[in-house]
## 1
Amino acid sequence: MTDSAPTPAVEIVRGELQPWTDYTGYRAPAGGPTLLALLDDLLPASIDRALIAGPHTTELISLVAARAAALTVLVRSVSDAQELRAAIPSPAVTVITGALDGLVGVAPFDVVIAADGLDRVLGADSPALNWPQRLAELRRLCAGGALAVVAVENEFALTGLYDRRPLDARHGDDEWRPLHDDPERPTSPAQVTAALGDGLTRLYAAFDEAGTIHTLLDVEAAAATRPGRPGASLAVTGLAAAAGHTPLLASVGDGASAAARAGLLGAVAPGWLAVLGDGGATHTAYAPGVLLADLDETGWTLSVSGSAPVVYASRLPDTESVETLLFRLAAAEDVPGFRAFAARLGEWGGAAEGLILLDDLFPDDGGFTRGVRGLVPVENDGRAELLAAAYHRLRDRLVRAHRRHPWPPWTVESDDLVATWLGMSGIEATPGVLKRGREIADRLAEPPADEPDLRTVLADAEADRLRAVELAGKVFGLERTMRFRDQSLRTREQQLRTIRDELRKLRNSPAMRLHEVTRKVAKVRHPRQFARALKRRLRKG
């Protein structure tokens, strides 16, 4: 029986931190299926020497280790290095703990990956290097013509501009020495391109969920897209995922649409992922799923990496979504145009194939094509129920965004508006269809945020203030009515008392006594018998 080979030890260079960890806290290490799909396309099948600098997931490290004859992983935390060493015991992988500037005397690398960026690569003994100096340290370790992947954080991101936290509370100490106020850090695609130089081969707008890449979109495609188009849909979905970890002043949706209209969508992403040097062929966009998308003059070509439960169309036109077009018709109060478009939806043959998301449905040669969220099949619901669900969802998004429309408010607050739209599509809006459509739309609704954004809170507060004023007016009117009624009751009570006093005086008057006698006398039917009886009583008395 032979003993297993011992696990290699962790090497230490200048700048190590202990106790410390970059693998827990707000920002996770770089990774995620989207980033792995990009590296799977980008990395050569055979690599002599590779370097991973900064905190990265074990899945990413394993992907690179499978293609590299020798892989070096550099993290600044001793405990993180020991855990990585235990998770990846391969002797071909060298785990080093220390700072980037402390890695000296090593041969250059053919592949260098810093997908976490250059903010978590310095230690306590490192000089205060600005971003260009950190990049120079990374370039020092690259061989001539090396392939490098570097992430850059964007200080002009919408998620940062809309962050309602003060500057000193946004990062805490999870990055130990943040350089967010570094004046030399590039903060636009043009500045990143200039800083990286001629070696830059591709630049992605990176939308991450606190470190985990959600969506990658080529910055040129992001700059060329416009609101409602597939590229903008990818970016807005990525921004929403990134904003899910940040308390915001307002929703990033409106800002993203304005940025897309100005051609600046790539400039307001949370960051960028730069590729330097030559590697494998990459795609225009990578999205969860893992969806691979390529853009050319005729539109988008969609495919998936591996097996995916969602079916995507092979081609997607680069046109505005149905929701964008319907919102525009509603804002222009073009009811005939809206009716004609709704009739096209009602005649569409693919309406019963799966769930209908109007913000992910695009006009295509007289028909429609589902977009980057693909076809989600259903079993029991028919075309009427699915279209009713789509219209319920459209109504909800119309109201939530406070968009202009030509319909009366009492129809918007009920199902009458959805019934009207179904009628425009040639579908009878029965109570069963409307109820089932509401159930599907509720299932598709975005979950509410744990904390509403500040603009929503202020809008709700203003609405509550107006409601309080209206209720105060109603209370004042009811109080005035009650005072009038109270005064009326007091007047009637006084009148009744006066009448009772007059009646009491009238009963004790001679006229009333004469009236009583007369009334009794009038009841006598036999006067003679009454006279005899009266005489007998007088004699007895």
Note: Residues 322-444 form one domain.
## 2
Amino acid sequence: MQIRRRSYLLGGLFLLATNGCALFIPWLLKLAVESLQSLHTAPHPPSFYGGLIIGAALLHGTVRVFSRTTLLHAARGIEYQIRDELYARLLKLDQSFFAGERTGDLISRFSNDLTNVRMLVGFGVLNIINSFVIYIAALALMIRLSPALTVFAVIPFPVMIFIVKRMSASMFRRSKKSQEELARLTAAVEENVSAAPLIKAYCREDAAIASFREASGRYMASNMRVAQLRGFMIPVMAATGATGTLIVLLVGGGKVVAGALTLGDFVAFNGYLAMLIWPTIMLGWILNLSQRGAASMERLNWILQAEPRVDEPAEPAAIAALQGDLELRNVVFSYGAETILHGISLKIAKGARLGIVGPIGSGKSTLVRLLARLYRVENDMIFIDGIDINRISLALLRDAIGFVPQEGFLFSRTIAENIAYGKEGASEDEIAEAARMAGLHDEVCRFPEGYATLVGERGITLSGGQKQRTAIARALLKDPAIMILDDPLSAVDAKTEEEILANLANYYGNRTVIIVSHRISALRDCDLIIALEDGRIAEQGSHAQLLELGGKYAALYREQQLRREIEDY
């Protein structure tokens, strides 16, 4: 920020020099006119003043370049800094924040809103300083030339200030509304582009076009309201300057004829008055820019001031690494007013395997996400190695966990880069070995580009099963102490599932493994299996114990066995 202050200070000094040259030119015109009126008695000929005017104009143009580049470069620096802070803040925020926000709206804040702020701290600041200096200096020189004529020249200005003040609040509201409509339009485009295959599959192209046209129409209408207000303001500014000039011509011309004002003073006075016209017109543009910038900054501050619900512990526990002993004590969790988990308690020793099964909405995914603190956990509910999870630093906790979510996200990069995301600097052999354990290697080798195959937006070029296995390989490569698999094999067939489970059994070793699955076959080798229902543990035990119990787990197992026999038949 110290560098920014120096840039603005230097830019302000260049602006003072620029305006000094500009203000000197009307005075030189006054001397040139007086020299023409008295050629024999004037100290210098008109050509001398003409040369000075040319020199002042050249110097004015040169210094103007430096003033603009210095201030605009400072604005670019501020934009860069805010963008960095925005991105860093987004990475700190947790899932509860993103669950309520649309990607397109956040993208709009990074692009359009940041541009408006840059314009405000760049062109806006430049013109504010420029207008302030011009007004003060030009009015002072006009008063020196003719105080009475200055009063007549500025008569329209109070009217203009009153109108601008009344319109500024309306401009802010309209500008903010325009930014919000642009965010909705951006969100609509982002959603439709991502869902292009689905739109085509359901022949919803016309509906998507109509929806986009409606969002675009609302954005255009909100922009038109801003433009209408701006279109009214700028002529008001221009009319103010023109009215002042007309009054000066009428009153000042009479004074020149009467001999109360010299022709040179009249020419200089009109030159300074003309210099006020452009800053006056710019006031309307500056007002529009400032209101748009203020509205955009308010939207950006909403992100910058957002606080994550999952934050770092004030005094993290002094531990080097996590081993994987897990204990849950009466875990309760709610999404708002809706309670999802009710009193979940269990212990998982290091190296043990826990299986979780249950119907949709029973709280399976929520439970495993709490273990990685993707949601806020109350104190004294979850312990790892005997330490409250809220006392473990997030970096240490998440580095110890390999998490494979239900829908693995893939970046628009190569298969190798997506797998290597789990471990920085991974070698080709390590990537291939992780893919082999995930049952993906043979299929990748059949691709023309192999591991260099680009997967497209969100992995669109891969099948559902291939995307899931890529996500599994990413977690395996990480070599975590705790492996969490949230229904990672739902998109693969039974044969591939068996192959992957056999590979993973050799990989688990002393790692603590938690598997969420709707298929009993993925859980049968687990040391402990819990069946969730309505956020509570309905049944728990080993695979054999639960079958012997003859409850819902056993019924689900028989159902799946029967379905498999029918499919094989």
Note: The mean pLDDT is 83.
